[in-house]
User: Fold this.
Amino acid sequence: MSRPYNFSAGPAALPEAVLAQAQTEFMDWNGTGMSVMEMSHRGKDFTAIAQQAEADLRELLSIPKNYKVLFLQGGASAQFSVIPLNLLRGGTADYLDTGIWSQKAIAEAQRYGKINVVASGAADKYTTVPARETWQCNPNASYFHYTPNETINGVEIHDVPDVGDVPIVADFSSTILSRPIDVSKFGLIYAGAQKNIGPAGLVIVIIREDLIGHAQPDTPVMLDYKTHAEHDSMYNTPPTYSWYIAGLVFKWLKAQGGLNAMSALNQCKANTLYAAIDGSGGFYRNPIAIPYRSWMNVPFTLPAEALEKQFLQQATQAGLLNLAGHRIIGGMRASIYNAIPEHGVQELVQFMQAFQALHQSL
Ligand code: PMP
Assistant:
């Protein structure tokens, strides 16, 4: 069976091999007579699944021993509140504003303490990131927060910023596992699962141990990292099925050659798509400054809004799904996460070229 390519920004495409394996195991996991969905989260079968998933993630990202990996709920959005509640420690925090998701993180953090926006891409309509020299950082901030990949705007910061000794907190929702990262440079990394990890319902937090245990006193127990760290993310019932599928994705990534292999592939896919956009003579346009173009989310526009409906309809007929841009910024957006193979991007490019040939002269 040939499936269409799904360019959704999230929930997003999962590797076909993972879906096939989940299907095989759906009714009866490993001879237990149970679906993973039906297992006790405290039983030995699910505990083994959970531990293996964590071990594989640790291996993929080379996570140092002094970091805890938490498998939580509430999405990345809940982390927008959980982070200040746990890390502000009565102080202030620095935030970099690079687009819609960092704005949301800032707005939420402002409810809990004094937030210093070190720089903002707003004046440039978030098409670039202000130069590091212009950032107004506070060396005494409790933490520095940024969004390495802005899913809606398609802006990616490809290197980890240098902010001295201030712990870096990063929302990796739409770029985690797309390439290797040096986890030791971060105090906390968080990522909603529904793009590069697995199904929605799970958010992964990788936190340096010394940052745990400092939540403000009225923090709800479910929002205190200490609670989850002390209970191996099993204080309450975790999202077991999402955790299991994430584990299958981690195994699949290892089988692909790990994150170095994914990085090469993702760079190649992004290059192919940006080259097609830039080579279209202005028919397709991507507004993002070249050094900050996202490898994962590629927004682009057509010469006239009237063409967009046709583009989307015909793309769907050609088996290229979910190319509409985010409702806030419009246009098109192709999300080309790990599960989109190279030939998916090639088919998209061929479709774009054929569509242009047909409509350019009209
Ligand atoms: N941060 C980023 C960068 C995102 O892309 C998203 C979701 N698209 C979120 C946060 C919010 O995630 P969730 O829906 O899991 O709360």
User: Anything to note?
Assistant: The chain has two domains: 16-255, 257-359. The mean pLDDT is 97. Residues 10, 75-77, 101, 147, 151, 171, 173-174, 192 surround 4'-deoxy-4'-aminopyridoxal-5'-phosphate (CB under 6 Å). The longest helix spans residues 258-278.
